[in-house]
Write a structure and sequence with these properties.
Structural class: alpha/beta
Strand content: 15-25%
Distance between the termini: 61 Å
CATH architecture of the largest domain: 3-Layer(aba) Sandwich
Number of helices: 13
CATH topology of the largest domain: Aminopeptidase
């Protein structure tokens, strides 16, 4: 971790020497098993951050790998690749500049205009935004403390409710389960702002909010998110400490009780996909699980927002078996992807998680599905790898509007189906 501390000191205080502190993102496609083995070694033994795939176990022949290489590792990594005739392409030649650009967030007052939502914000800013949003909309917004993180930071969910109709159904949206995926919390803020601004003007959001409440958790992993702002921009997991290992953190999206810690997760604490000591061992996962258990009869649609790769996924990710309502979920995801393509010309893949990407047990979407919430989706937002986790602020608007189309499309379909069930004898 000391490497990243040095890196950020240079960024903040010695901008005149940015050429000496150049971190890069490389795209590498291994051609042989020997190259696969070398790349696995590079991604685990040197101070790098594997962007794609999420773990070295998924590296295979003819599959593109995205690797973040910090300054101090650049020469040794490139020399090693050259020695073994492994070609690479530089996706991002100066990642430091992008990191610095992301951290410039100007005004922290959401009342200052829509540009507030076209920037990334610190955890403190997001907590402040939560308070201001509630103060400005007390008849529509309720703030619920659902639990706290490992380092005792509050987990605040906003309940967006327009009316008090009896037996209303609900939508749950969580963001920021993986710390480095900054576009995810940005979308949660965007969604709330859009809903409050366009209720009564936009027919789709008006229809959704007239008939359903929405719970929004802007940052599910506050400790990790804060750490990406202060120390290591590439951090993924939470920040829990284990007495038995020097490695920190659990992948919260491997910590739910859905084929927990089977193929596609790791019992090794140093792994990026470490599943934890047991299901819901992490307070963040447990808080969300407890809330959803308590509200499983009202929550009809579960959405968890991630990045990157532009995908609309649904259960199962923990097994190759098809979900009971696979065709129904596939139709919803397909329609949402088609609408995104029509409006923004962006291509989103869609399908069951395990078959579309790879096995990923212990995910929140599968656990929720098994709980009985049969409309459960994971959105992987922009982009497809060029900027990856360092999506520039200038791209926030497009990324969030794409996700908004998908949310509206799927929510309206779920609403239509739940109303049909109520009407049927």
């Amino acid at each position: 971790m000391r490497t990243f501390l040095i890196l950020f000191v240079f960024i903040n205080f010695d901008r005149g020497h940015c050429t000496e502190t150049r971190a890069q993102v490389l795209s590498i496609t291994p051609k042989t098993q020997e190259q696969v083995d070398i790349l696995k070694n590079v991604s685990t033994q040197y101070q790098t951050a594997l962007w794609q795939p999420v773990s070295s176990q998924y590296i295979k022949e003819e599959t593109e790998v995205h690797l973040f290489v910090p300054t101090n590792s650049s020469k040794i990594v490139k020399d090693l690749l050259q020695k073994h005739s492994i070609t690479h392409e530089v996706l991002l030649p100066n990642a430091n500049e992008l990191i610095e650009m992301q951290m410039r967030n100007g005004s922290t007052d959401p009342r200052s205009g829509s540009t507030f939502y076209e920037r990334y914000h610190t955890l403190e800013d997001i907590y402040d935004w939560t308070n201001r949003t509630f103060q400005d909309n007390p008849s529509k917004i309720t703030v619920i403390l659902i639990g706290s993180s490992y380092e005792k930071r509050p987990l605040y969910a906003l309940k967006l409710s327009i009316n008090n109709r009896p037996n209303k159904k609900a939508i749950w949206i969580d963001c920021g389960i993986h710390a480095r995926e900054w576009i995810s919390p940005a979308f949660c803020l965007w969604f709330v702002h859009h809903s409050l601004s366009f209720y009564g003007q936009n027919q789709e959001i008006t229809n959704i909010l007239n008939n359903m409440d929405v719970y929004i958790l802007p940052v599910m992993n506050p400790d990790g998110y804060l750490y990406t702002w202060t120390t290591n921009r590439m951090w993924r997991k939470n920040r829990s400490v284990k007495k038995t290992s020097p490695c920190i953190g659990v992948d919260l999206n491997r910590n739910f009780d859905a084929n927990w810690c089977t193929e596609g997760a790791s019992s090794e604490p140093c792994s990026e996909i470490y599943c934890g000591a047991f299901p819901e061992s992490e307070p963040e996962a447990q808080a969300v699980a407890n809330f959803l258990r308590e509200h499983k009869d009202s929550v009809q649609l579960y959405l968890t927002i991630h990045s990157y790769s532009q995908m609309l996924l649904f259960p199962y990710s923990c097994t190759l078996d098809e979900a009971e309502n696979h065709k129904e979920l596939l139709e919803m995801a397909k329609e949402a992807a088609q609408k995104i393509r029509r409006h923004y010309r962006s291509q989103y893949r869609y399908g069951a998680g395990a078959k579309t990407i790879y096995l990923a047990p212990g995910g929140s979407d599968d656990w929720v599905y098994n709980l009985g919430i049969k409309y459960s989706f994971t959105f992987e937002l922009q982009d497809r790898g060029h900027y990856g986790f360092l999506l520039p602020p200038s791209e926030i608007s497009k990324a969030c509007n794409e996700a908004l189309i998908a949310v509206k499309t799927i929510a309206l379909k779920v609403l239509e189906k739940t109303q049909a069930q109520i009407r049927s004898p």
